[in-house]
Amino acid sequence: MDALNSLTNLVALHGVYALSVIFIFYQQRRAHENLARASGGPDKHYFRLVHASVVIATYVLVLISTLVWIYATFIYLPVRPVKGEVTGLRAPLAAPEGTLVHHQLAPELRGDVEFYPVNDPPVRNGEYRFRWVLLARENLRQVAFIFTQQAEVAADSSRFSPIATAGLDPAPSERGRKVIELEKRFVLDLGAIRYSPTKAVHLTYKPDQHDPTNVGTLWLSNADGAVPVPIQWADGAAPAQARSVVDRLWGALSLPVFAAPIGAALFGKDGSYDVETARALQFQLGHADLRTRLSARQTLVENGSLAFRFILDTLDGKVSPKASDRAMLVDSLSKTIDEIELRGSRFPSHGHLKLAVALYEGTNFKSAAYHFDKAEAGGAMQDTQQVAMRAHAYLESDRYVEAIRTFNEYIAANISPQGRAWARDSLGFVYSRLGRTDDSIREHREALRLAPNYATALNNLSYTLAKRGETLHEALALVDRALRQERDNPYYLETRGYVLFRLGRLDEAADLIRRAMAKVPNDPDGQRDLKEVEEAIRLRRRSPVSPSGGARRIEP
Question: What is the pTM of this model?
Fold first, then answer.
């Protein structure tokens, strides 16, 4: 059916023109035959005039028809305006529970649509309404949108050091805040929406009430006021729209004539490029505005493998951007590589390794782990430092089985005692998440054997013992040793509060955990512990019996 529709459109656009030209020249041929058959005299003169007028009219009509055909085919584009708005978005004016959140939305512009956005000023609670007008082709049914959420949260570097050989714990000045960017795609079906020009397509964003750093849900309300329906997030890149045989044939015939190669202006056949142009493109890839980043990413995607040299040089720092957010620039390169590879071009494995390291340094652990996998599949060699990064990226991405394997690979290498202590302590954390408490305690103790004053390991062993309800006085001594090194570390304060709770000192425990959660409100372990302590206090008010300190498995 799609092929038949495409063939019908092709005949309607170009067949009528072709038949008109054929008929006009046929009439010219008939006039020429009549002139040749004329016997002479008045008839000859008459048919000569008819022939001349037909020839002139033929070329005039062909010229007019050709101009109309060119305009209708390559210039005129029937469009329909679609108005829309999204409510419930947040700008970084307010901080829910101490977390700054910023939402942006834009379509994936691929030549089918024009997009005109209007951002309303945020209100006092940080929410704002985003309005837009979309000029789309009349026959365009679906438009893919990109929704991004940037959340600025407290950096979690005090619990684990990201790089073992750089020291067991980062300096307190390095513990600041980090930005977590999540990107989601969804498809708006223009054909299914009962759209009225007098009303807008209304979307409503509802955040995750439990964790504002997670992406919430998006709801669609039709113009007729129907009950809102949830929009499904699409995973990965937007699928390429299927094209019929007629479309592909027409594209192959028309593209060389009417379109210049997109990559010619940016990249040569060997991937060479102008340095200033590259810096401008880097600036756009790291820009805070989503639409600017999408446009730059699409430029690279359209160039395909020609853009690989530019991407590798950017990762190597051979071309420095004028001004750009490094983490956002690398994230844009990661998404660009994914889309290029979906179209059949393979990025070199050593490039995936460089990209993984850059993503890791920007604390984008999930994407880093993904590109470490791609590098390993392609045979790229990884040194011990990169193995440590990979193991930690697996840990932060909750890929615990791969984390255990990679940490053991790192431990088996020729590394320093400090690095081995870091890996052992990290393994202990992974085992605790899997409920293997005995293994967790063993690894934490081994880390302290290698580095007796390792504050993170002191804290983690104390917390694990407290969760089991065993040797609580040892647990208190351990966390106190950690706090003597970092007295204001919120994770250590939270651990001490939980140990005190297990010892039955509920009021002291609640005060400490509340102080800690004021600094790291999004720590799930701390929030669970605080609820547990507050519930015990409520029970104490009803009954004088103190809470039990029985053994409990570490919650995953």
Answer: 0.73
Q: Which two tokens stand for residue 43?
A: 């008839």
CATH of the domain at 427: 1.25.40.10
30-40 residue pLDDT tens: 766 766 766 66
Judgement on whether residues 93 and 213 belong to the same structural domain of the protein: yes
Quote the tokens at residue 441.
């305690």
Residue 550: name the closest of 496, 506, 501, 477 by CA: 501
Domain identity same for 95 and 191? yes
Residues 428 and 537 in one domain: yes
Strands 201-206 and 79-90, sheet pairing: parallel
Question: Into how many domains does the chain fold?
Answer: 3
Same-domain pairing of 183 and 227: yes
What is the pLDDT, as a whole number, of residue 110? 63
Residues 12 and 118 in one domain: no
| Residue 116, both tokens | 């005109």
Do residues 19 and 137 share a domain?
no
Residues 469 and 449: their CA atoms lie apart, in Å, by 23
In a domain, 356, yes or no: no
> Domain boundary residue among 41, 75, 109?
75
Burial 232-242 (b: 16+ CB within 10 A, else e): eeeeebbeeee
Residues 47 and 193 in one domain: no
SS3 44: helix
| Complete edge-to-edge strand list for the sheet that includes strand 177-189 | 100-107, 142-154, 177-189
Q: Which helix (H) or strand (E) holds 154?
A: strand 142-154
Beta-bridged to residue 149, according to DSSP, are 103, 182
Q: Report which of 513, 512, 509 is spatially closest to residue 525, judged by C-alpha positions.
A: 513
**Closest of 8, 14, 54, 57 to residue 30, by C-alpha:** 54
Q: Collect the ranges in the chain with pLDDT lower than 70.
A: 1-21, 27-28, 31-32, 34-35, 37-45, 47-48, 51, 76-77, 93-99, 109-112, 122-125, 138-139, 153-179, 191-199, 212, 222-227, 235-265, 321-324, 544-556
Which amino acid is located at 376 in the chain? Answer: E
**Of the candidates 242, 262, 286, which is a domain's last residue?**
242
Domain span at 510: 423-556
Same domain? For 69 and 101 the reply is no
- Crossing angle of the two packed helices 365-377 and 326-342, in degrees rounded to 10: 40
At residue 482, the pLDDT reads 94
The reply to whether 333 falls in a domain is no
Rounded distance, CA 17 to CA 15, Å?
5
> Torsion angle, CA of 414/417/418/424, rounded to 10 degrees?
90
334 in a structural domain = no
Phi–psi pair at 390, nearest 5 degrees: -65, -45
- Contact in structure between 458 and 445 (CB atoms under 8 Å): no
Residue 189 in any domain: the answer is yes
Q: At what angle do helices 349-361 and 384-396 cross, to 10 degrees?
A: 60
Residue 112: DSSP 8-state: S
